[in-house]
Specification:
The complex is a heterodimer of chains A (47) and B (340).
Chain A lengths: L1 H9 L1 H24 L2 H8 L2
Chain B lengths: L2 H26 L7 E2 L6 H23 L5 H31 L12 H5 L3 H4 L11 H23 L1 H18 L11 H17 L5 H16 L5 H25 L3 H12 L1 H17 L5 E2 H41 L1
Helix pairs in contact in B: 1-2, 1-10, 1-11, 1-12, 2-6, 2-8, 2-10, 3-6, 3-12, 3-13, 6-7, 6-8, 7-8, 7-10, 9-10, 12-13
Classes of the chains: A mainly alpha (47), B mainly alpha (340).
Chain lengths: 47, 340
Amino acid sequence: MKNIKEIIGKNIILILYIVEFLLSVFLIKSTIDLLNTKAYCRIFFFK
Amino acid sequence: MNSKKRIVYLDLIRVISMFIIVTYHFFAHFPENNINGFKIFSNSKWGIIGVALFFMISGASLYCNYGEKIDLKKYFKKRFLGIFPMFWIAYFVIYLMLFFQTKTVPFGDLANYKYLVSIVGMDGYLGFYINTFYLIGEWFLGCIILIYILFPIYRLLINKYPKIFFAISSIIGFGLMLFLKGTKMPVHMNLLVNSYSFILGMYIFKYIKEIKWWQMLIALAIPVGLYCIPAVAVNYVVTIANCIAYCLFIVLAYVGMKINNEIIENWLLVIGKYSYAVFLVHHYIIMKVEATFQNSDLRLKGTVCLYLTVWLIIAIFSKILYSTNKNILSMFKSKENSKG
């Protein structure tokens, strides 16, 4: 347990970077999906 | 990639950069009005990123239209009609509003010949060196006008000497970003620095026909890392922000190319159409609206409400400005046609 904490502590920048990167990938993927979903467009834009 | 797909991504980036710039200005005026709100965007990097994206999109759009052949007379006429009439209308209205509010002629102590600087849209850009009748358009307008004038030369160099011109402009662009110091005009407003963003947009449009998912991931990994770097010196902030914008352009282009929804495509086109009008009026509206909220404790809910209020007013005035400009131009056009 102590070792894991130490490893996380030493590599916190790297871990944050990876988390941020994965979140960005998720954001891009969901944006593309959202932009290509026609159902909500029909609701908002009455088409 | 067909031409339609390429234009959709240009529209997407135009709309996103417009939102970045307006949102940046919205939060940038919180401190001077002592508004205690939910701040997510006060970082000056975002302003530079939005503007760099706008320059890149301008370069890409112009290269899309005039890359293969250019009729200089038509090009300059179209640019002139696209920029100046709307700017003059907005300027004139705000000038009269200021006169009505203050009951005195705005900038009454300035020499009249300086109106010429405003008429040619350079008042914001030259405001660092001389006193001008600056009201709207900011430094950006003057800078983009100069870049539009230089576009035929950039186009010629890209078409004739693509490699050499890319190398030279990269050296000048990054050299200025990293080492230009002590000038009255901030580095990120420098004509050559912004010309570099514009030129990169032209190059991307000319050479990058398709973006693969792994290329997008690389382009995404760079800004995520760069954004984490704490930059103290102004030059590094400008360099990092510009690099983020260059990579973000690729990422957003990838997203834009993946759009396959006509409704969204049409909406991007419509919103993008108003981007210049939004750009002209947004800063003045933000300053006026936020001045009425001085010393307010808005927190999250209040900040969201104020943000939406500002956008609503910007949308109304942009629509009015756009329609007025369109009507005036068509009036002149029909008179010209009847004469002919």
